Amino acid sequence: MTASEFWRWMSEASAELLEADGQHVADEIEQRLSEIDKRLGVEISGPAEPREMIITAWSDPSAFAAVRELVAAAPALPGWRIIALKPPRGFEFGIDLDGLKVDANELRFEPLGAPEDPKLLGIRIYVPSAGDDDDERLGRALPLILESGIGEEAAAQIDHSEYVAGAGDETALPIRELLRYVRWHLKKHAGE
Predict the structure, then answer these.
(1) Mean pLDDT value across the chain
(2) Fewer Cβ within 10 Å of end Cβ, the chain: N or C?
(3) What is the DSSP letter of 93?
(4) Whole-angstrom Cα distance, residue 147 to residue 171?
C-alpha cells in the first residue's frame, strides 16, 4: 500500500472510523499502516471531535522520516487531528499492565554516565509501586510511559534505561524533570 492509497482509504472510511470504538479503529488503521511500513503504528483517542490519530514509529529514529512524510501527505480530514510522532504529554497518568499498576508521576530517575562515551544518555528509573518480580512487565510498561511523558523523539535519545523497584534515594530526580534533563544533555553534548 502506498501513502496515497492509505489516505484515499482513510478519506473514504473517515466518517465510520470517527464513530467506532478506539481499539477497533486503531487495529484497522495499524493493519493498513503496516502495509506501508512495518515500523509504523498508531494511537487513537476516543470518539470526540477532533479525534486524534498519532502515527508513531515506536521511538525508532530510523522511521521518524517515514512518519513525517506520511503525515505531511495527509489530506484535510474533517473531525480528525493527525499528529506525527507522540508529543510530550507529561506524567499525570497511570498505567495498568497485566496487574502492575504504575502511577507515572511517582517515578523518579537518576542519570547514568558512560565514561567511554559521555554523550550517550542513560537513566535508571525507580518505580515505588513495583516489586522485585515485576521486571518483565516493567520492561514493557516503562518505554510506553517514557514515550507518553517526554514524547517519542526525546525518548529515542535515551540510549540505555534500566528499571528498579523502589523509590530510590534523595539523589533521584522526579520524573517530571526528565524532558528538561534530556534536552540539557543533548545541548551539552551537541557537536561532540
Answers:
(1) 91
(2) C
(3) -
(4) 23
